[in-house]
From TrEMBL:
Belongs to the CdaR family. It comes from the Bacteria. It holds the Pfam family GGDEF_2. InterPro entries: CdaR-like_regulators, CdaR_GGDEF, GAF, GAF-like_dom_sf, PucR_C-HTH_dom, PucR_C-HTH_sf. Residues 67-218 form the GAF domain. This is Helix-turn-helix domain-containing protein. Gene3D superfamilies: 3.30.450.40, PucR C-terminal helix-turn-helix domain. SUPFAM superfamilies: GAF domain-like. Coiled coil: none annotated. SMART domains: GAF. PANTHER family: CARBOHYDRATE DIACID REGULATOR, DNA-BINDING TRANSCRIPTIONAL ACTIVATOR ADER.
Length: 585
């Protein structure tokens, strides 16, 4: 083998530079050309090996990044490093607007450039996006092949870019973005550099899709975890609400359970917006209108859901102190409304059943004449929490009235319909006080007439008749409430009068006292009024000492009240005495 050929092979084996090879083979042009071609092939192979190595390293780096934004940042940094450019950047396709927008940059200094949007077909990047093919230019500002726009040229000029290369990001044939590499000086991009940028773009597209899938998987797992947590929360709520129902709890327990589960304020209102239960510190949530669908709705600064059962609106459940509720929490509130409806419905049905029993008892009492208490009736009352062996007052209500049974029940009595009226029987000995108390509790609307006292266990017919006539007289007189004693002889108007009832209301205690003691307080009263209300002249008529008359009148004051001698009461008592004389043979 010629010495020159051996020398050239030795230089190639020693990885000598092209200059040394040219110098060694100056006298043999053909051998030098072959050696330089081999040297160039070795260099190209090494360059390709380095590029492949860089791509493998890039793929490894991208595989370790799960965040889509992190993937894009890693891509542009790697592109800038591998191609040795001043700037690298990546735009993504916006299918809603039909253009691309800047998503990641490396080496950029212009805020305007970093927020640039590229319409399809505009500029180099727009042409890449439109044709899905790579394009490059050594001098973009002077290159007339591209559609220049003031917005794009202004941003490119502010960044100082001159040479630009762009290649599309494609996934299964679908365009997703453009990867760019650029210089701030004129430079011709070699085909191998364009190919390398294209390989990076392919890696970027795959990595971006993988990162998105990882993110979607993470989101799905988070949603699944949230759903699982919601199921657990719903199960916990179901168990606690079930325990409330099974233990015989009421709306107070439901409000407390819901407030604890959601850490908020809770209020339950009935259909008339009366507050039944509250939970939590702070102001009580206001009653608000809620849709009858049973779905939770926003209401002012809180939340509200209708409480309904069997097509019947029973009330409203209101939440306060909570801004947002997730789906699981919404279901918990709606479940609480359902449980509240069940409890209220049970209570309503129980109240209706109890009221039927009470109404039956009341009807039986009103049908009986007065007399000694019936032990069987007294026992039936005791089972209902009533004391029918003690004095009560009978009240008759006419006109619009709601809640009489509740008011009577609160006082240990009972109430119900009788004929065209509502009748209440409540413990007490002062009919006037009972009339006033009922008027306060029931508000404007009904006319209330009272009579008594009477022991209900012995029958209520007579006292009920007096109360009924009193109510009729009050309606005729335009008054709201009063007792038979209060309206006096005015009770003789309005309905067919019972003189005996009037006499009993005015003089009953005195008549009973005389019957028990064998005294004659009635005769003393007649003599007193006949003598012009003079005890001395009355004593003369009765042939007794004046002190005796005074003592008897003091007893009358105890029996009839201290105001018995006042003008109004005195007139009514005199009328009762006169009517009694007329009715007595």
């Amino acid at each position: 083998m010629p010495q020159t050929a051996l020398d050239l092979l030795r230089l190639l084996a020693e990885d000598a530079s092209a200059d040394r090879i040219s110098e060694q083979a100056q006298q043999h042009p053909e051998a030098r050309e072959l050696a330089l071609r081999i040297r160039a092939g070795i260099d190209e192979h090494r360059r390709r090996e380095a590029e492949l190595s860089a791509l493998v390293e890039t793929a490894r780096d991208l595989a370790s990044v799960a965040d889509p934004r992190g993937v894009l940042d890693a891509i542009v940094r790697r592109a800038r490093s591998l191609l040795g450019t001043d700037v690298a950047y990546l735009t993504l396709f916006d299918p809603d607007l039909g253009d691309t927008f800047m998503r990641a940059t490396a080496g950029s200094v212009s805020a305007r450039f970093q927020t640039l949007r590229l319409p399809l077909g505009a500029g180099l990047g727009g042409l890449v996006a439109q044709t899905r093919r790579p394009y490059w230019t050594a001098d973009y500002p002077a290159d007339e092949r591209y559609d220049h726009t003031p917005e794009i040229d202004g941003a490119v000029g502010e960044e100082g870019l001159v040479a630009i290369c762009g290649t599309p990001l494609l996934v299964d044939g679908d365009f997703v973005g453009v990867l760019f590499a650029s210089h701030r000086a004129r430079r011709v991009f070699r085909r191998d550099e364009v190919a390398l940028l294209g390989s990076l773009a392919a890696l970027a597209a795959v990595s971006l899709v993988q990162a998105r899938r990882v993110a979607e998987t993470a989101d799905a797992l988070a949603a699944l975890s949230a759903a699982h947590a919601g199921i657990e929360q719903a199960a916990t709520a179901h168990d606690r609400f079930s325990q409330v129902v099974l233990s015989g709890g009421g709306v107070d327990d439901i409000a407390a359970t819901l407030g604890e589960l959601l850490a908020c304020r809770v209020a339950v209102f009935d259909v008339d917006d009366h507050c039944l239960a509250t939970y939590g510190d702070g102001p009580v949530p206001r009653p608000v209108a809620a849709e009858g669908s049973g779905r939770l709705t926003r209401a002012g600064d809180g939340w509200a859901v209708a409480v309904s059962a069997a097509g019947q609106r029973l009330g409203t459940l209101v939440l306060g102190g909570v801004d947002e509720l997730d789906r699981g929490q919404v279901r918990t509130v709606e479940r609480a409304a359902m449980v509240t409806a069940l409890v209220l419905l049970f209570r309503l049905r129980a109240a209706e059943s109890d009221q039927r029993v009470r109404t039956d008892l009341l009807t039986e009492l009103l049908a009986r004449d007065g007399g000694e208490p019936d032990p069987a009736l007294v026992e039936r009352g005791r089972l209902l929490g009533l004391q029918l062996g003690v004095p009560h007052v009978v009240a008759v209500c006419r006109g619009p009235v709601r809640g009489l049974a509740v008011v009577a029940g609160d006082g240990g009595g009972l109430a119900g319909p009788h004929g065209d009226d509502l009748v209440a029987v409540v413990p007490g000995t002062d009919p006037s006080a009972v009339a006033a108390a009922l008027a306060r509790r029931l508000g404007d609307g009904p006319t209330i007439g009272t009579a008594g006292p009477v022991v209900p266990g012995g029958g209520l017919r007579e006292v009920h008749e007096r109360a009924r006539r009193t109510a009729g007289a009050l309606v005729a007189l335009g008054r709201r409430a009063g007792s038979a004693r209060e309206i006096g002889f005015a009770g003789l108007v309005g309905e067919p009068a019972d003189v005996g009832d009037y006499v009993h209301d005015m003089l009953g205690p005195v008549v009973d006292y005389d019957a028990r003691r064998g005294s004659d307080l009635l005769g003393t009263l007649e003599a007193y009024f006949a003598a012009g209300a003079s005890p001395r002249r009355a004593a003369g008529e009765l042939h007794v000492h004046v002190n005796t008359v005074t003592q008897r009148l003091e007893r009358v004051a105890v029996l009839l009240g201290a105001d018995w001698s006042g003008p109004a009461r005195a007139l009514e008592i005199q009328l009762a005495l006169h009517l009694r004389r007329l009715r007595t043979p």
